[in-house]
Specification:
By secondary structure, this protein is an alpha+beta fold. It has eight helices and 13 strands. It is 33% helix and 31% strand. Strand 11, helix 7 and strand 12 form a beta-alpha-beta unit.
């Protein structure tokens, strides 16, 4: 039996998932991070769908809007017991979430489903749901391989905070528009600018490292940039990009070398990138290595891009 927004004890339903995440992330307050989700679900402030057997929830899905992204919903899917997962139940949960997103022309995003098994992934494939596997990379600025590369004539560099935020955020979107990682960037210009403003102010992810954050300009236009934040005392490159029409000129290598060089007072610098991207290969070639930490995000695009 499938039901929407029923009165259930969501803390009990999600407890196996929470316990698994506590084991995977012992350094994080996982149960506290779930607290607001459980509260919203218990009070029907969040859209949900459950599958029940003998008055017991055996499968579930819920949707919640992402802060700063009005063009998408994040979802969570799971089963209390992996033996309860099958193709029919997987289809019920996935089709419900897709319908809800299509009602509002929103993208659907979610992390690895819990206790679902191969049947759920097969159902995802049938519906055209794609995956983005991101890997964490690290480098030691003190032993990094530098080639003393300079900017080509006609290109200049300025601090990110001195650049036009709308132009910078739009250039960032342009750089990733045809890549899987574009799902991490809002389709709406105003939202992109707001997120960038929050990042630069330190309200998201950590304080900005000014010497490791700059924009590249050509003929007065933003054509690339890099933003570096201090996260748990370790520099974290949150964005490094070159717009498509300027790629192939060595600008990406210039950005990589110069940002790492600016961080030589630190023993380590980290970043996340798409495992299947050209950027991943470039970082490996320049001296970064994979840390072994990965995350997979699944997504289904809906609606129309807003420019």
């Amino acid at each position: 039996m499938e039901l929407s927004n029923v009165k259930v004890d969501w803390e009990n339903v999600l407890d196996p998932e929470i316990q698994q995440n506590e084991k995977l992330h012992p350094d994080l307050p996982v149960r506290d991070m779930y607290r607001w989700v459980i509260d919203d679900l218990n009070n029907n402030r969040m859209r949900s769908r459950v599958i029940m057997s003998l008055d017991r929830v055996i499968g579930y899905a819920f949707l919640y809007p992402a802060t700063g992204f009005s063009d998408r919903y994040f979802a969570s899917f799971g089963f209390k017991d992996p033996l309860s997962a099958n193709t029919e139940r997987s289809n019920i949960l996935l089709d419900w979430a897709i319908r809800e997103c299509r009602k509002e022309n929103r993208k659907l995003l979610f992390n690895e489903p819990f206790n679902t098994g191969p049947e759920f992934h097969a159902s995802m494939d049938e519906r055209g749901i794609r995956s983005l596997k991101r890997v964490e990379m690290t480098a030691n600025p003190g032993s990094f391989r530098f080639s003393s590369m300079n900017l080509p004539d006609g290109y200049t560099r300025t601090g990110v905070q001195s650049a036009d935020l709308s132009a910078y955020s739009d250039a960032l979107y342009s750089a990733f528009k045809s890549e899987d990682e574009s799902i991490l960037i809002s389709s709406y210009p105003a939202e992109r600018k707001k997120v960038l403003s929050d990042i630069l102010s330190g309200r998201l992810y950590g304080a900005i490292i000014h010497e490791g954050s700059f924009a590249l300009l050509h003929a007065g236009k933003v054509v690339g940039g890099v933003t570096t934040l201090l996260n748990s005392a370790i520099p974290f490159i949150s964005d490094l990009f070159i717009v498509p029409e300027e790629q192939g000129k060595g600008l990406g290598s210039y950005l990589t070398e110069n940002v790492v060089s600016s961080l030589r007072i630190y023993k380590e610098v980290r970043l996340w990138t798409d495992e299947r991207s050209i950027a991943h290969e470039m970082y490996l070639h320049r001296g970064f290595t994979d840390t072994g930490r990965t995350e997979t995000l699944y997504y289904l695009r809906t609606g129309k891009p807003q420019g």
